[in-house]
Design goal:
Structural class: mainly beta
Number of strands: 10
Distance between the termini: 35 Å
Largest sheet: 4 strands, mixed
Strand order of the largest sheet: 9-4-3-10
C-alpha cells in the first residue's frame, strides 16, 4: 500500500511505500511550540520506505540529545517530516493531516506526556518520554 501527501502549497510531496511502524501523538514542548498546538499526530515509517520531493529546510530546536531534525517546505514553511534521533534511528515521522487519505491512521501511543498541555482520556499508553525501543525510559503515567 502506498500512502502519499503534500504540504499545503504542494511544493513538497512525499510517499511511503509501507505502513508505519508506530502511530500516535507527541506531547513534547518542542512539538507544541513548532506546531502551535497542544500535541502532534505522527506516524513513524522506515526511512527506506519514505520519499520526499521538493525543497525543504531543516532545523533542530530542542536541546535534547538525539533531537529530531524538522524538515519544512521551503516555500510555505509547513513542517512535512521529522527525522527522529537526528537520523540515527532510520525513521521518518510524517504527519497524518498532510496525507491525501486518513483511513489508515490508527494511533497506538502517546509520548512525552510529562510535558502535556491537556489530558487525553483514552485507553492508549501514555509514556513519560518514549518507549525503551525508541531510546526512552519506557515509564508510563
Amino acid at each position: 500500500m502506498e500512502l502519499s501527501g503534500r504540504c499545503p502549497c504542494g511544493a513538497v510531496t512525499f510517499r511511503a511505500t509501507e505502513m508505519p511502524t508506530m502511530q500516535g501523538y507527541c506531547h513534547c514542548t518542542s512539538c507544541q511550540r513548532a506546531q502551535a498546538a497542544p500535541m502532534l499526530a505522527f506516524a513513524l515509517f522506515s526511512s527506506d520506505d519514505v520519499t520526499l520531493e521538493g525543497e525543504t529546510t531543516s532545523l533542530t530546536i530542542s536541546g535534547r540529545d538525539g533531537a529530531a531534525v524538522r524538515l519544512s517546505c521551503a516555500v510555505c514553511g509547513t513542517r512535512v517530516a521529522n527525522v527522529p534521533g537526528g537520523g540515527t534511528l532510520g525513521l521518518h515521522a510524517l504527519f497524518p493531516p498532510l496525507f491525501a487519505r486518513h483511513d489508515w491512521f490508527t494511533p497506538a501511543i502517546h509520548i512525552f506526556c510529562e510535558e502535556r498541555m491537556v489530558d487525553i482520556d483514552d485507553a492508549l499508553p501514555k509514556y513519560v518520554d518514549t518507549p525503551e525501543a525508541f531510546g526512552g525510559s519506557g515509564q508510563t503515567l
